[in-house]
């Protein structure tokens, strides 16, 4: 198998090019995909990790063109830290997902959280950024993180879906920042849209987005059903639940699987379907 084309700008359509960061892992697939939007003036979406090689590749791809906005889908360390060096090099503002401040940041973040993320401007759902020949509209899609945004390119019908919808795997939903109820609601929100194509943060282009989103909703309903059936047979702690639901999973991914099961349990508890006492989960009568 050929090595992925790290650092090489690849044109996807007249207004969009992609540059892949060299940060492959079990959680990032081949790496984080940064996107350049525009022709003469640019927006850069998710400049990726704090990586000198990727920063240099982005600057080379940008060339003499002006960057007018650096857009961030969410605050994870494989998406937002590169914004600081890019802003310093180009003078462009960092715009997009909200930061975490005060005590909330300490309680809601995890090891993948970019604690230094400080945008110059936060976008609300439906707000747009415009450049020469392009318009990017923020689409609030919380769930993977509480501040997650996608960006819709109005001129072409493309959606930059970040980690909410990826082209290789379902997203990890990790409480307390991740929220399964919000994640499912955001999928249902996308199902009601008519975007032509998705450009995700990781993995292949999603060329049939409605079908993909329906499949992801079905997958989550299947996981929810597994949990309810197991708890109907008797109370369980989360560890045997995860072991039974994810038999044969790569051990490196088990902590993420545990967090997704926990997110489902928290959502089911909020809906009055299960309850927890001293770490033991059971069905509600």
UniProtKB/TrEMBL annotation:
Residues 31-202 form the Metallo-beta-lactamase domain. This is Glyoxylase, beta-lactamase superfamily II. Signal peptide: none annotated. SUPFAM superfamilies: Metallo-hydrolase/oxidoreductase (SSF56281). It comes from Sphingomonas gellani.
């Amino acid at each position: 198998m050929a090595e992925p084309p790290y650092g090489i700008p690849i044109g996807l359509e007249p207004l969009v090019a992609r540059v892949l960061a060299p940060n492959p892992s079990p959680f990032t697939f081949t790496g984080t995909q940064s996107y350049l939007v525009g022709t003469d003036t640019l927006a850069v979406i998710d400049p990726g990790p704090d990586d000198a090689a990727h920063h240099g590749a982005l600057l080379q791809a940008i060339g003499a063109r002006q960057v007018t906005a650096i857009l961030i889908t969410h605050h994870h360390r494989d998406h937002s830290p590169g914004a600081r060096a890019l802003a310093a090099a180009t003078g462009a503002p960092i715009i997009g997902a909200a930061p975490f401040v005060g005590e909330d940041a300490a309680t809601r973040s995890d090891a993948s959280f970019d604690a230094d993320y400080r945008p110059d401007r936060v976008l609300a759902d439906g707000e747009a950024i415009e450049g020469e020949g392009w318009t990017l509209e923020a689409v609030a899609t919380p769930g993977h993180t509480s501040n997650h945004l996608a960006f819709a390119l109005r001129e072409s019908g493309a959606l930059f879906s970040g980690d909410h919808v990826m082209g290789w795997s379902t997203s990890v939903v990790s409480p307390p920042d991740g929220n399964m109820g919000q994640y499912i609601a955001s999928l249902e929100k996308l199902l009601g849209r008519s975007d032509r194509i998705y450009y995700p943060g990781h993995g292949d282009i999603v060329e049939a987005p409605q079908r993909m989103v329906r499949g992801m909703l079905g997958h989550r309903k299947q996981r929810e059903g597994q949990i309810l059936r197991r708890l109907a047979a008797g109370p369980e702690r989360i560890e045997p639940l995860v072991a039974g639901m994810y038999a044969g999973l790569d051990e490196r991914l088990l902590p993420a699987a545990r967090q997704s099961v926990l997110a489902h349990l928290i959502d089911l508890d909020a809906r009055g379907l299960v309850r927890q006492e001293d770490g033991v989960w059971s069905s509600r009568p």
